[in-house]
Design a protein that fits this description.
Layout lengths: L3 H15 L3 H6 L5 H9 L5 H13 L2 H11 L5 H25 L5 H19 L2 H6 L5 H21 L8 H31 L4 H32 L1
């Protein structure tokens, strides 16, 4: 039977392979140039474009989707899924709104590295790594809420890169947040349907651990690529 150390070794090997894609990961998950140009050239309340931008950002945000996939991986009751997703949504909504409206800014490489860490953390948790390796189990609900705060700061950082006009700012940020929630519902529904189908197959129990090893490796690749981007930016 695989142990946490085996999982980490496997994730490390996969991470080494994934680093070949690190440059593209560093550059990914920003706001598309066309979207940014539209927002910057059209100041004032732009509710529909910001709704679209928020939904698009969540649906195409691989780091957010990987984390959500990890969160619901072993959740079977809709009540539990709703609780965890609500905790995540509250967390990222708080820091998204507060970050943009108060001007609090975090280095994008640092916050994206933390978001990558959240993916690796959840996968390690799904593998039972904490009790096996450290003899304790962190509160999973608290972890999801705290990492939700980090994901919200990441969203706020992307918006701050647009140099948003003060005119209509509150309406636009609220619209963006609603769009994020709508995109999250769409993406989560697709992930959940896939998970329900997979759980019904005979291979789920055999491959669940391997899937979380891949998930942990993906998170670690994001972490390392963002750290590399941070260091490259400082030495450029």
């Amino acid at each position: 039977m695989a142990t946490p150390s085996n999982w980490i070794c496997r994730a490390g090997r996969l991470m080494a392979l994934g680093l070949a894609f690190a440059p593209s990961i560093c550059a990914a998950h920003g706001v598309a140039e066309g979207d940014a140009a539209f927002i910057q050239n059209n100041p004032g309340p732009q509710v529909v474009p910001f709704l679209y931008l928020g939904a698009k950002h969540m649906v195409t945000g691989y780091d957010h989707l990987l984390f959500l996939a990890g969160v619901i991986f072993f959740l079977y009751r809709l009540r539990d899924i709703a609780l965890y997703v609500t905790l995540f949504s509250l967390g990222h909504s708080i820091t998204l709104l507060a970050g943009v409206l108060t001007g609090v800014r975090v280095d994008p490489f640092v916050i994206d590295a933390i978001i990558g860490l959240s993916v690796a953390y959840k996968a390690f948790d799904n593998l039972g790594g904490f009790p096996a390796a450290f003899g304790f189990q962190p509160n999973p609900k608290a972890a999801v809420a705290v990492f939700g705060l980090a994901h919200g700061l990441g969203l706020a950082t992307k918006l701050q890169d647009l140099k948003l006009s003060p005119s209509g700012l509150v309406a636009n940020i609220l619209a963006f947040n609603v769009g994020v929630e709508a995109g999250q519902i769409v993406a989560l529904s697709a992930i959940l349907l896939l998970m329900v189908w997979w759980r019904g197959t005979s291979g789920f129990q055999r491959h669940a651990a391997g899937a979380n090893v891949l998930l942990m490796a993906a998170g670690l690749v994001i972490v390392e690529s963002q750290i590399a981007g941070f260091l490259m930016e400082r030495t450029a």
